[in-house]
C-alpha cells in the first residue's frame, strides 16, 4: 500500500472509528505531447505520475473529509468553490447517469501538488468515481467514468476542460503513455520504457499559480471554435495544413498550433514504438515552440526551463498541461536530472524568477482499487 493510501485509511479510522469499506487512489498526470488538442477532437499522449489522491470510503452519512485541509463538507451540498466540488460533481454526474449512490462518507488524502498543472482535480475525480463505482456495484466502464468526471468538471465545477486528464488518471498503465483519440474516445497504452533507455522525465513546477477558470483557457477554446467555423469544419481535428491559408491573425496562429500538434502526437507515437527517443525529444521541442509562438500559453519561467534543459543535453523539453504557468517537463538522461535541477535553480535566481520545485518520475499506474472489504 502506498503511503498516501495508508494516510487516507488511517484518517478514516480515526474519524469514523471503523475500517473503510473501500480504498482507492488515482494519479495526477503529465502530458508528453498533444496540448489543447483534446477539446478540438484531436490526439493526446499523457502518462500518469507517481503522485496520487487516495480516498477511503464507506456507506452511511453525508461527509467528505480532506486530510490535507483538515475540513469536512457535505457530499450533497451545493457548489462552494472548494476542493469538495470535485467529488460532489462526480457524485452528481454518476447519479444523473443512473448510478444509485445512497450515502457516503469519504476521506481524501493526496500528494499531487495543487494548482500546478499536474491535474490534482482529475486525480480526486477519478479516485472518487472508481470508489463510488466499486462501493455501490455500479459496474461502469472506466471510459464511462472518465466521461462522467469530465462532465462533473464542465457542468458542476464550471471549467470547460477536455477529456485528457480524466482519461489519463483512469486509463494509464505503469510503464506506458496513453494515446487518446479525443473524438472517438478510443485509447491505447503505448509502452514508454524510460528506465531501459537510462532516461527520466524531470518535471519543473514553476510554481506560478494558474487557475484554469481565470486564465486564457476558455479564450483559447473559443478562438479554436471560431477558426473551425471559418473553415467550415466541425472541429480543428478536421482541418488540414493547406486550409490554414484561409485564416489570419489570432485564428491562424491558434489553428496552426492545433493542426501541427495533432500531427506531432501521431509522429511521437511512431517514435515511441521505434524506441527513438531522440525523435520524441525533437517533437517535444517543436511542440513547445508552437505553444510559445502560436498558441501563446508559455511564460518566461517555462521558456527558461526549456532552454536550460536543452543546454544541459535534454533530448526534449516542453511545457505540459494548460500552460500560463504550472509545469514543464524534460526528457533527459537519468544521471543528469540532478545537475539540471541545480542549474535551473541557480539560473532562475540569477534571472530574478521564483524558485521552482522538481519531481522526477517514471510513467506510473492509473487509478486502482486498493482494498475492498
Ligand atoms: C488542461 C485541461 C485538459 C487539456 C489541457 C491542455 O489540463 O484540463 O483537458 O485541454 O489543459 O492540453
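Q: What amino acid sequence fits the structure above?
A:
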Amino acid at each position: 500500500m502506498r503511503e498516501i493510501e495508508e494516510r487516507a485509511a488511517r484518517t478514516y479510522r480515526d474519524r469514523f472509528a471503523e475500517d473503510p469499506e473501500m480504498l482507492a487512489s488515482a494519479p495526477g498526470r503529465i502530458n508528453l505531447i498533444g496540448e489543447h488538442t483534446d477539446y478540438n477532437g484531436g490526439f493526446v499522449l499523457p502518462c500518469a505520475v507517481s503522485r496520487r489522491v487516495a480516498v477511503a470510503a464507506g456507506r452511511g452519512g453525508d461527509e467528505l473529509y480532506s486530510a490535507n485541509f483538515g475540513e469536512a463538507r457535505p457530499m450533497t451540498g451545493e457548489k462552494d468553490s472548494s476542493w469538495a466540488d470535485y467529488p460532489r460533481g462526480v457524485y452528481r454526474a454518476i447519479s444523473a447517469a443512473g448510478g444509485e449512490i445512497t450515502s457516503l462518507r469519504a476521506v481524501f488524502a493526496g500528494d499531487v501538488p495543487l494548482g500546478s498543472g499536474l491535474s490534482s482535480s482529475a486525480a480526486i475525480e477519478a479516485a472518487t468515481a472508481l470508489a463510488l463505482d466499486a462501493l455501490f456495484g455500479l459496474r461502469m466502464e472506466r471510459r464511462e467514468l472518465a466521461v462522467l468526471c469530465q462532465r462533473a468538471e464542465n457542468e458542476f465545477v464550471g471549467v470547460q476542460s477536455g477529456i485528457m486528464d480524466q482519461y489519463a488518471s483512469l486509463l494509464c498503465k505503469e510503464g506506458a503513455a496513453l494515446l487518446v483519440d479525443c473524438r472517438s474516445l478510443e485509447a491505447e497504452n503505448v509502452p514508454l520504457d524510460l528506465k531501459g533507455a537510462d532516461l527520466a522525465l524531470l518535471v519543473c513546477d514553476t510554481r506560478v499559480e494558474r487557475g484554469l477558470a481565470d486564465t486564457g483557457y476558455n479564450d483559447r477554446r473559443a478562438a479554436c471554435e471560431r477558426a473551425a467555423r471559418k473553415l467550415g469544419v466541425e472541429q480543428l481535428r478536421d482541418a488540414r495544413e493547406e486550409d490554414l491559408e484561409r485564416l489570419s491573425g489570432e485564428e491562424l496562429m491558434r489553428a496552426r498550433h492545433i493542426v501541427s500538434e495533432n500531427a506531432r502526437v501521431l509522429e511521437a507515437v511512431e517514435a515511441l514504438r521505434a524506441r527513438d527517443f531522440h525523435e520524441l525529444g525533437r517533437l517535444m521541442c517543436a511542440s513547445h515552440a508552437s505553444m510559445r509562438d502560436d498558441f501563446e500559453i508559455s511564460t518566461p519561467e517555462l521558456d527558461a526551463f526549456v532552454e536550460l534543459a536543452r543546454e544541459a543535453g535534454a533530448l526534449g523539453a516542453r511545457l505540459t498541461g494548460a500552460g500560463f504557468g504550472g509545469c514543464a517537463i524534460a526528457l533527459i538522461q537519468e544521471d543528469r536530472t540532478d545537475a539540471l535541477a541545480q542549474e535551473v535553480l541557480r539560473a532562475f535566481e540569477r534571472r530574478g524568477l521564483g524558485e521552482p520545485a522538481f519531481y522526477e518520475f517514471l510513467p506510473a499506474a492509473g487509478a486502482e482499487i486498493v482494498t475492498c472489504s
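Q: And what stands out in the fold?
A: The first strand starts at residue 22 and ends at 31.
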